[in-house]
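Our preliminary data section would be incomplete without showing what the modeling component actually yields. Below, a chain of 297 amino acids is followed by its predicted structure, encoded as tokens that our downstream tools consume directly.
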Amino acid sequence: MPVMGLDSNSENVDTVSPEAADFSNSAELVSGEADLSNVEADLPEIETDLAVSETDPARQVRFKTQDGKTLLLLPPEPSEATVSPWEEVWEQLKHRLAASERFWQPQTAVYLIARDRLLDARQLQAIAAALTTAELRLKRIYTSRRQTAIAAVTAGYAVEQEMPIAHLEHASPQAGKSLDEPLYLQNTIRSGMEIRHGGTIVILGDVNPGGSLVAEGDIVVWGRLKGLAHAGSQGNRRCRIMTLHMEPTQLRIADKVARPPETPPAAYLPEVAYIGKGGIRIAPAQDFARWLAEQQP
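Predicted structure:
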């Protein structure tokens, strides 16, 4: 996925001890996609499990177009009261693709709404391959399962974890909303990959140019940060971006945006980006820790 462009009035930021220049406000990233709310109807008892699955929309693989976007909705994770094991989901998907192949333009982007379904990398790759055969392309995966999110990143797909379905309708953040549990990923974020999470993101690896991290909490990269990083994406200006090697294409914290100087430093040290007086500042981690201690009463 391409990295968002800089605002025309954004400025370069030099590596500093906690002193820095002004940075202009930037439009907030929009993470909403579409409304996927489902209404379950009362259904009569049906003899076979397959018949139930084919009758109840909540237990079917479905394609839905909303606001010009093509959504692929999977049924929730099986429980004692439901059916829809992976084999059935796979057969339903192939049936839907075969029955609807004339209704899409070639290379239409598809947003996979996995809900709480547990999917491994092999299953995600099978879904992507089936879409490719139908001349569709998997663009992003929404999931509430940490294991599915990790599998998606490992397989190289853009992912958004802990994304309530109702929130896909450009909903405003709720006041006092608590952050999700931190998302830990031991993986290199390659170009075109975007990770969105409702809490803190911790990456044990590098973020390559063209990679993107968007977190409602902090961002910690135990490696080289060379892509885009947006901490406090819902407006929290107290969030920070920390990395061993700060060389991003763009930094965002809440509504502030900055980029590093065109001339790189002679050597890289662990650094922290945060909002101070005048905008985003970048400081060596040691200096930041000393400055932070001075702020304590």
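The domain at 1-29+176-297 is CATH 2.160.20.70 (Pectate Lyase C-like). The chain has two domains: 1-29+176-297, 33-169. Preliminary results of this kind motivate Aim 1 of the renewal.
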